[in-house]
Specification:
By secondary structure, this protein is mainly α. It is 56% helix and 2% strand. The chain contains eight helices and two strands; from the N terminus they run ββαααααααα. It has a two-stranded antiparallel sheet with strand order 1-2. A hairpin with a 2-residue loop joins β1 and β2. α4 packs parallel to α7.
Length: 167
């Protein structure tokens, strides 16, 4: 798998769950987001959102978030803005029956705050005669950065602020 997503092999995915069962398929879906053509990548991102990002979050959610941050920071990923939006969805989701899963997922999203700040501040890179492809990434990163900074939920109450957690 190269250096992008290379650490996925260190996660015991088969021991984790998502909305529809075993999370053993998550590495393949992350790979399709990273290297798939546009339709394949879009379908994989949609699948992943249904599996780990829609309320409630699962134990596999926190394990997946570092790889989502890696994808968001990789220029060759086709829908980096969609990945950032999925991170925002995870930050807004929870699991009342498993508050530790919620805290872990939210903390994993907050840990990537510096990446969101870097992406939000990225310079414009307009293509000749075309739109600025980084504009949607900057906009999604700005939205996510604001969500991280104002995040408050019952599961995360009493935790240090997102800024303090990443220092």
């Amino acid at each position: 798998m190269g250096t992008v997503l290379g650490a996925m092999r260190n996660v015991r995915w088969h021991e984790l769950q998502h909305a529809y069962g075993s999370a053993s398929q998550v590495p393949g879906v992350l790979s399709r987001i990273a290297w798939g053509d546009a339709p394949t990548s879009d379908e994989a991102l949609s699948d992943l959102e249904r599996w780990i990002g829609t309320p409630p979050v699962f134990d596999s959610t926190a394990a997946t978030v570092p790889f989502l941050w890696e994808l968001a920071a990789t220029d060759t990923v086709r829908d980096r803005a969609g990945v950032l939006d999925l991170l925002a969805t995870i930050l807004a989701a929870g699991n009342t029956e498993h508050p530790a899963w919620t805290r872990a997922a939210h903390d994993a999203v907050a840990t990537g705050r510096a990446t969101a700040a870097r992406l939000a501040a990225a310079p414009a890179t307009p293509e000749a005669g075309g739109p600025d492809p980084a504009r949607t990434v900057r906009a999604a990163a700005t939205r996510l950065l604001a969500a991280i900074d104002r995040h408050a939920c019952p599961a995360c109450a009493g935790l240090p602020s997102p800024e303090a957690r990443v220092r």
